[in-house]
Specification:
- This protein has helices at 2-13, 69-72, and strands spanning 34-38, 53-56, 62-68, 80-84, 92-107, 113-123, 140-143, 153-155, 160-162, 165-172, 175-187, 190-195.
- The radius of gyration is 28 Å and the shape is elongated.
- A hairpin with a 5-residue loop joins β5 and β6 (113-123).
- Strands 3-6-5-4-7 form a five-stranded antiparallel sheet. A five-stranded antiparallel sheet has the order 8-12-11-10-9, with no helix packed on it.
- The chain is mainly β and 220 residues long.
């Protein structure tokens, strides 16, 4: 490459048998951009190949997110995503570019070893929408595995296991009625109900383990 040729020519041009000889050398960046990071704050000897500056284009950011390997298998290139809690509003639209084929072990905040995978995202939003976002900043990613509109849904805390499926306790006047349900998409603390409930039905949220079908309840 052109910058590698220029580096080799610079070494040959300034080669000297006098190790103490002072050499001033102009170093040009191989790409246009801004300085993102300085690896040295003052003059000092450096080794061949040692980085001096990181140069990049803030408007061409990519996002790397480490996710559990059990979640990474559900992701694929082109999958839509959103970047949240990045310091601005609204959420930034993004899209999965690559799911790394190899994982790594990471110790969680609770001290548990987890297998995680790097997922690379491209930001779909225009540069002016994330003008304040910079290199190595923290963001949270939310992957959109499926979408549904105008659906019947209940809080996920209302569901519990029942046989081979799931059920809720439906409010029937002053009584709780066991109601098996068939669920769909999940997300944001809500669960889509495909069958078993009708619009307007009320359910018990956070049902007590002692509460059974037909027990008397009181609405709050």
């Amino acid at each position: 490459m052109q910058h590698e040729l220029a580096a080799a020519e610079a070494v040959l041009a300034h080669d000297s048998t006098d190790a103490a000889a002072a050499v001033e050398l102009e170093i040009r960046s191989p790409v246009d951009g801004v300085v993102l990071r300085r690896h040295f704050e003052s003059g000092r000897p450096v080794q061949v190949g040692q980085p001096l500056l990181d140069v990049g284009d803030p408007e061409a950011l990519e996002v790397e997110v480490d996710v559990l390997s059990s979640d990474a298998v559900r992701l694929s290139p082109g999958l839509p995503a959103e970047l949240v809690r990045w310091g601005g509003e609204p959420a930034l639209a993004a899209r999965v570019r690559q799911v790394e084929p190899g994982g790594f072990t990471k110790v969680s905040a609770l001290g548990v070893e987890e297998q995680r995978v790097w997922v690379v995202l491209d930001i779909d939003a225009p540069p002016e929408a994330f003008r304040g976002l910079g290199d190595a900043y923290r963001v949270n990613a939310r992957f959109i595995l499926g979408e549904a509109h105008d659906v019947l849904h209940v809080p996920s805390s209302a569901l519990f296991r029942h046989g081979d499926g799931q059920a809720v306790l439906r409010v029937d006047g002053a009584r709780a009625r066991l109601q098996p349900v068939r669920t769909g998409l999940r997300g944001g603390g809500e669960v889509e109900i495909l069958d078993g409930l009708a619009r307007g039905d009320r359910v018990v949220v956070h049902p007590d383990r002692e509460l059974s079908d037909g027990d008397r309840i009181r609405s709050r």
